[in-house]
Design brief:
heterodimer; A: mainly alpha; 3 helices; B: two-stranded antiparallel ribbon; globular
């Protein structure tokens, strides 16, 4: 039952999976940033820079899934 | 860039059900092979308004600023100090013009898409359930057009390359990408050099994806906002005046956050490549 269900799935599932993972990843990054700023408000700027970078690299994964894999 | 955006936009257009808000901007008039779209119109109007506003503010400069001169000084100085804290004094002097322009422009283009009438005045038809659906709005948010965001990302990519070469030289640029980092010697050094050379190719792919990610991030956020607003105002016809209101406030926030993210990301990418020495991070 489960196997036929899986076999019948078509479309760009990998993009959905990538988007799911990226969502979790960005959420974790945001959690880390918020915690870090909460502990040390003076470090706001460096935390922001590193957080934004980490988010950008995480986010790129969904674009790899979109464009690098055949649909 | 027009072709580039069209290529990206086509596969998604093949979906059977047509989205409520069209994925691409609708052409208003055709001059030869060049179409003027509703998004372009908004972009030009916003650019013109910013130019006139800035000219008015700086026409009669006072020592003690007041009125719109005060507003612009506050905006530009605030941005300058913020960027200086992130990318350092030397770099901000060289690149401030670009980052400030991109921030102010994206911000006002995003917010102009929220003005009542943008996206709701135009040509359309009556749907079977008696609602009027706009097929071809007269005005459409400028960043809800992938061509616009791709163009901005492409301009940044070219500038990033120029700034990188200026700061590092061609050899330094290649060394930054492929060269080994850290302090190791002997056999381990050779091993690390091979690994870092391989890593360099990953880095190149990631760099090539930056303009794609930049343009899609901005386009996706603004387009999703337009779709959300459309959905909220058509979902329950009796409450069409109430449901979109909370989302208007959210879109105001999204507009400023996306402008900030675009500016910050481009600034940090520039910082990463133009940095001299191993650890000279911008400390205030």
């Amino acid at each position: 039952m489960m196997l036929t269900l899986l076999a019948e799935m078509t479309g760009s599932i990998h993009v959905g999976l990538a988007a799911m993972g990226v969502g979790i990843g960005i959420g974790l990054t945001g959690l880390g940033m918020a915690t870090a700023v909460g502990r040390n408000p003076g470090a706001f700027t460096p935390v922001l820079v590193h957080g934004i970078l980490a988010i950008a690299f995480t986010e790129a994964i969904v674009f790899y899934a979109l464009f690098l894999l055949p649909h | 860039m027009l072709i580039c955006g069209a290529v990206f936009a086509t596969p998604a257009m093949a979906v059977e059900a047509e989205p409520a808000v069209s994925l691409k901007a609708a052409p208003l008039l055709q001059i030869g092979g060049f179409a003027i779209t509703n998004s372009m119109l908004v972009t030009w109007v916003v650019a013109l308004v910013i130019i006139i506003f800035a000219q008015l503010a700086t026409r009669n400069i006072q020592k003690v600023p007041g009125g719109i001169q005060n507003f612009w000084e506050w905006l530009v100085e605030g941005l300058y100090n913020f960027l200086e804290g992130i990318i350092g004094r030397d770099l901000v002097r060289k690149t401030f013009w670009f980052f400030a322009t991109i921030f102010i422009f994206i911000l006002f283009v995003n917010w102009s898409g929220l003005v009542p009438g943008v996206g709701t005045v135009g040509w359309g038809h009556y749907t079977p359930n008696g609602l009027f659906h706009i097929d071809r709005p007269l005005l459409r948010g400028g960043n809800a057009d992938l061509n616009m965001t791709t163009a901005m990302a492409a301009i940044f990519f070219v500038l990033w390359f120029i700034w990188a070469i200026q700061a590092q030289g061609v050899g330094g640029f290649l060394k930054h990408l492929f060269g080994p980092k850290g302090e190791t010697t002997g056999f381990i050094f050779i091993l690390m050099a091979v690994i870092f050379f391989m890593m360099g190719w990953l880095e190149v792919v990631s760099i090539l994806f930056r303009p794609v990610a930049l343009s899609f991030r901005l386009f996706g956020n603004i387009y999703a906002g337009e779709s959300l607003m459309e959905a909220m105002s058509t979902m329950v016809p009796a409450l069409a005046w109430l449901l979109p209101i909370p989302f208007y406030f959210m879109e105001i926030l999204v507009g400023i956050v996306q402008a900030l993210v675009f500016m910050l990301l481009t600034a940090v990418f520039t910082l990463l490549i133009a940095q001299h020495g191993p650890q000279e991070h911008a400390h205030e």
